[in-house]
Write a structure and sequence with these properties.
The protein has 464 residues and is α+β, with helices and mostly antiparallel strands. Among the domains are: 65 residues, no CATH class; 53 residues, no CATH class. 42% of the residues lie in helices and 14% in strands. A 3-stranded antiparallel beta sheet has the order 3-2-7. It has a 3-stranded antiparallel beta sheet with strand order 4-5-6, with no helix packed on it. Strands 1-10 form a two-stranded antiparallel sheet. Strand 11 and strand 12 form a beta hairpin.
C-alpha cells in the first residue's frame, strides 16, 4: 500500500467518501420530495394579531415605517480591510457609538468605499410597488411570521442570464419549502428544491435559485424541516395576543349591555312567570326605543336586582391589557412608552433615548439581515455592480443625530494633539475632503506646524 493510499488522499473518490454531510442525512433523509412544515399559526399571527389587535398593529406599523425611512446607498468597495473593520465596529457597538467611535466610523467609511454612490439597479421592484413598500412589507413579514421571501423574475437571454427584471414579495403565511427528492450528502449541498405558495386550491412553484429567503433564528429542529423556517416573534406572545383580544371583545359586550348582568325580582312579593316576562319585554322595548321619555316605566310593586357579574372596577381589565401590551412590546423589540399612551407623555427627554434605542436594537439588526441577503443574492446578478454592496445609514434619522458641540470639541482636541488631519476633521463633519496635500498632513497646535517639523525642532516657537 502506497503512503498516499494509506492516508486516504490517493484519489478524488476517496476525498468524497471521507466528506459526508451528516446534518443533511439526519434531518432530510426521510422527507425528500415532501413539504416541510413548522408553525401552523402563521395566518393567526396576521389575522388575529396584526389585522385586528391595535397594539400589535401599532408596534409593527411604527417599525415598518421607521425601517423604510432609513437611508440606503449602494457603495463600491475600495478597501476590503477597512470594510471589514467598519463592519466589526458596527456590530460591536450596535450603531450606538460614542463620539470617538462615530469619528472612527466615518474615517473607515472614507477608506472602505469609493466617493459617491451608485443608482439602485431597479428603479422600482415591480409595476405595483415601490422599494419603500417592499421594505415595509419586509419588516411586517419578519415580525408577524419570522420569514420574508423575495421572488426575482430574471432574464433568460444568455447574455444577461439570471439578471433580475422585477422582484415581488411572496406571502410568508402561505409559503412552504419543498425538499429535494435525493438530498445530497456532500458539503454545501442545498436541500431545498423549490418554494410553494398555497393559495386556496392553487399551488404555485417558485424556483429555489430565484427566491431570497430571510429568516429569524429558530432553535426548533425536527423531522419536518422546522429549522428551515424562521420563528415568529408573536409565537411567544400568542397567549397575550389571545388574552388581549378577549378583553377587547369583552369591552364591546360590556358597552352593549351597559355593564348589567343579573336577575330582576320582586321585593317581598314573588313575581309570577307572566309578570317576569312582561318586565323583561318592557326593558327590551325601553332599550330599543329612541323616543323621549322611553327610558321611564312604571311598576305596581317594589322591584329588586341581584347582580351576577363583576364590575369593570372589580375585574380590572385595563390592568390585564397593560400587562399584555408590555409582553407584546417585549417580544416585538419595541418600547410600550412609544405607543402614545398616557404614561409615555410623562417621560419627556427619556423618550428620545427610547426612540434611539429601538433603532439600534431592532431596526438596524433587521436591516443588516436584509442588506446581507441582497448583497449576497441580488446585487451580484447585475453587470457593473461587481464589488458593490448595499449600505444602510441611520445617521440621518432625527433620533440618531450627533451632538455637534460635543463632536467639534472632541475634533478640536484631536486636531491640536496631532491625532487626526484636517481632511479627517472635515470627513468627521461629513464634508468633502480637499485635494490640497497639506490637508492630509498631521499638524499640532494652531500654528499648523507639521508633526514631523515639531519633532525635529521641539524649540520651534509656534507663537513666534
Amino acid at each position: 500500500m502506497g503512503i498516499m493510499s494509506f492516508f486516504g488522499r490517493n484519489s478524488q473518490d476517496s476525498d468524497k467518501k471521507e466528506v459526508n454531510n451528516k446534518f443533511n442525512e439526519a434531518f432530510f433523509k426521510f422527507i425528500g420530495g415532501m413539504f416541510t412544515d413548522y408553525d401552523d399559526k402563521g395566518e393567526t399571527y396576521l389575522d388575529s394579531g396584526y389585522n385586528i389587535n391595535p397594539v400589535i398593529y401599532s408596534v409593527i406599523n411604527q417599525q415598518a415605517k421607521k425601517t423604510a425611512a432609513v437611508p440606503c446607498y449602494i457603495k463600491k468597495v475600495k478597501d476590503e480591510n477597512s470594510r471589514k473593520q467598519l463592519t466589526k465596529l458596527k456590530h460591536a457597538t450596535n450603531y450606538n457609538m460614542s463620539t470617538a467611535q462615530s469619528v472612527k466610523q466615518l474615517l473607515l467609511e472614507s477608506k472602505a468605499y469609493d466617493k459617491g454612490d451608485k443608482d439602485f439597479p431597479l428603479a422600482r421592484p415591480n409595476p405595483l410597488q415601490t422599494w419603500a413598500e417592499v421594505r415595509e412589507l419586509y419588516k411586517t413579514m419578519m415580525k408577524t411570521n419570522g420569514n420574508f421571501y423575495l421572488y426575482m423574475v430574471t432574464r433568460s437571454h444568455p447574455q444577461n442570464m439570471g439578471e433580475p427584471l422585477e422582484v415581488y414579495v411572496l406571502p410568508s403565511q402561505y409559503t412552504q419549502i419543498v425538499i429535494k427528492d435525493n438530498v445530497g450528502l456532500e458539503p454545501n449541498s442545498n436541500p431545498i428544491s423549490y418554494y410553494l405558495v398555497n393559495l386556496g386550491d392553487q399551488f404555485i412553484q417558485f424556483e429555489c435559485e430565484n427566491v431570497i429567503h430571510i429568516k429569524y433564528a429558530n432553535p426548533n429542529y425536527g423531522n419536518s424541516g422546522e429549522h428551515l423556517y424562521g420563528q415568529s416573534p408573536l409565537r411567544a406572545a400568542l397567549k397575550n395576543m389571545q388574552s388581549m383580544n378577549v378583553f377587547l371583545d369583552l369591552n364591546i359586550k360590556t358597552g352593549k349591555s351597559g355593564g348589567a348582568f343579573g336577575l330582576i325580582h320582586g321585593k317581598g312579593v314573588t313575581l309570577r312567570e307572566g309578570q317576569a316576562k312582561a318586565v323583561k319585554d318592557k326593558l327590551l322595548e325601553m332599550d330599543a326605543s329612541t323616543e323621549n321619555l322611553a327610558k321611564i316605566a312604571a311598576v305596581s310593586q317594589e322591584m329588586g336586582f341581584t347582580r351576577l357579574s363583576l364590575t369593570a372596577d372589580e375585574m380590572k381589565p385595563f390592568e390585564y391589557l397593560k400587562y399584555d401590551e408590555k409582553q407584546i412590546c417585549n417580544v416585538l423589540g419595541w418600547k410600550d412608552k412609544l405607543l402614545n399612551n398616557d404614561e409615555g407623555s410623562n417621560f419627556g427627554e427619556y423618550l428620545k433615548t427610547l426612540r434611539k434605542q429601538v433603532i439600534t436594537d431592532d431596526i438596524m439588526p433587521d436591516l443588516e439581515l436584509l442588506g446581507q441577503a441582497l448583497n449576497d443574492q441580488f446585487l451580484p446578478r447585475f453587470s457593473g455592480y461587481e464589488g458593490c454592496e448595499l449600505v444602510h445609514d441611520p445617521s440621518e434619522l432625527p433620533e440618531m443625530q450627533t451632538d455637534m458641540g460635543e463632536l467639534t470639541t472632541w475634533l478640536d482636541r484631536a486636531l491640536k494633539s496631532g491625532a487626526i488631519t484636517r481632511n479627517e476633521y472635515r470627513i468627521a463633519l461629513r464634508y468633502m475632503a480637499l485635494e490640497d496635500p497639506n490637508m492630509d498632513i498631521v499638524t499640532v497646535s494652531e500654528g499648523i506646524i507639521s508633526l514631523k517639523d515639531a519633532l525635529e525642532n521641539p524649540f520651534n516657537s509656534i507663537d513666534g
